From TrEMBL:
Pathway: Polyol metabolism; myo-inositol degradation into acetyl-CoA; acetyl-CoA from myo-inositol: step 1/7. The gene is iolG. This is Inositol 2-dehydrogenase/D-chiro-inositol 3-dehydrogenase. Residues 3-125 form the Gfo/Idh/MocA-like oxidoreductase N-terminal domain. HAMAP family: IolG. Its EC number is 1.1.1.18, 1.1.1.369. It is an enzyme of class 1 (oxidoreductase).
Length: 342
């Protein structure tokens, strides 16, 4: 089966995903695109030599009877309405994070998907497909370091532009750790708080940078995540898990070690697209493979999108108030308990 895909939003990651469907992975084909900036949609068709219809908006694209799935790669605030349109039309959905900008929005999507009666939605939490995270998870699942006590993580970007505000440290950046870390240690968040250390001179006036988030889990694990988006030196993702019997670290990205002029040095990547390239490829391959094998996706679900949204809301409130906030999750619906494996 070839999954025929319509893409809503042909910006940076939309183009990345178009390219990987057309040139890298198997099982899918881009047959429709739309973007509020029509020129962007046209240039995607031209640049990737697509045999695809260009639609004026998401509604027209979703109504196309010749598409099976929709990739939602528009700006975050536009995601919810496009997901709802697609689910109501019975299309499979791959939606980049955030699934919706509020927990209530995620619940509306969950209700629509339950009404359809079968999972349709996968959220773009690609860390779960990264080889390093997979190895780290395997180490923890094998109980090699005993009970997990603490996690120390960092999400660093070299620089961001002026459109990136303090709250985006949560909604754009920390959101990946929010998803990956509870998945990694099989635990749920209980409360969150944030500290603002001395501000770097490289951050613009409306951005507090760096920020340090402390997330406590229901089992008492203390997770500390540094978000530092003007670190200057590169794109760097760190994660160290401290257990009762030992410590497990996310592997570094392989890089040749050069010994020269009394120094040993390795390269550090600068670009998130390269850091997680294999993970993006795997998540989309898995999306197509699961549709073929089971008639439904098996990757991060709308429920995972909801967990991230509730936790992100608590982090935003912690930013505003300076106080610790509880993470209040509803009961996981039976609908999302089913485990599939490709
Ligand atoms: N999983 C990951 O690692 C990443 C996820 N993202 C997420 O992907 C989404 C897109 O990010 P970027 O590609 O970096 O942004 P971008 O600004 O480069 O592209 C977004 C595109 O969507 C279009 N658009 C906005 N609203 C629309 C609507 N209602 N209908 C149709 N088109 C619309 C814009 O014109 C633009 O071309 C964001 O939610 C972002 O958080 C982005 C980068 C990496
Ligand atoms: O989602 C992403 C971007 O939006 C964000 O800007 C980066 O910091 C992330 O690491 C990347 O994965």
């Amino acid at each position: 089966m070839t999954v025929r895909v319509g893409v809503i939003g042909t910006g940076a990651i939309g183009r990345e995903h178009i390219s990987r469907v057309e040139n890298v992975i198997s099982g899918g084909r881009i047959t429709a695109v739309t973007d509020v900036n029509e020129q962007s949609a046209q240039s995607a068709v031209r640049d990737f030599n697509l045999n695809a219809a260009i639609y004026p908006d998401d509604q027209a694209l979703v109504a196309d009877g010749n598409i099976d799935a929709v990739f939602i790669t528009s700006w975050g605030p536009a995601h919810e309405s496009s997901v709802l349109l697609a689910v109501e039309a019975g299309k499979y959905v791959f939606c980049e994070k955030p699934l919706a900008t509020t927990a209530e929005g995620c619940l509306r999507i969950i209700e629509a998907e339950k009404k359809h009666g079968r999972r349709l939605v996968q959220v773009g939490f690609m860390r779960r497909y990264d080889e390093g995270y997979a190895q780290l998870k395997e180490t923890l699942d094998q109980n090699e370091i005993g009970n997990v006590l603490m996690v120390r993580a960092a999400h660093r970007n070299a620089a961001v532009d002026e459109s990136y505000k303090t709250n985006m440290a949560v909604t754009e950046t920390l959101i990946h750790e929010i998803d990956a870390l509870h998945w990694l240690i099989h635990d749920d968040y209980h409360s969150v708080k944030v500290d603002f250390p001395r501000k770097t001179k490289h951050a613009h006036a409306e951005l507090q940078d760096p920020q340090v988030f402390t997330l406590k889990t229901k089992q008492g694990v203390l997770i500390n995540v540094e978000v530092f988006v003007n670190c200057r030196y590169g794109y760097d993702i760190q994660c160290e898990v401290i257990g009762e019997e030992g410590i497990a670290r996310l592997p570094e990205v392989p890089s040749v070690i050069v010994r020269k002029q009394s120094k040993a040095s390795t390269n550090i990547l600068n670009d998130w697209k390269l850091r997680f390239m294999d993970a993006y490829n795997k998540e989309l391959q898995n999306f197509f493979d699961a549709i073929e094998a089971y008639g439904q996706p098996q990757g991060p679900s709308a429920w995972d999108g909801y967990i991230a949204a509730v936790t992100a809301d608590a982090c935003l409130k912690a930013q505003e108030t300076g106080e610790e906030q509880d993470v209040l999750l509803g009961e996981k619906p039976e609908f999302y308990e089913q485990k599939l494996h490709v």
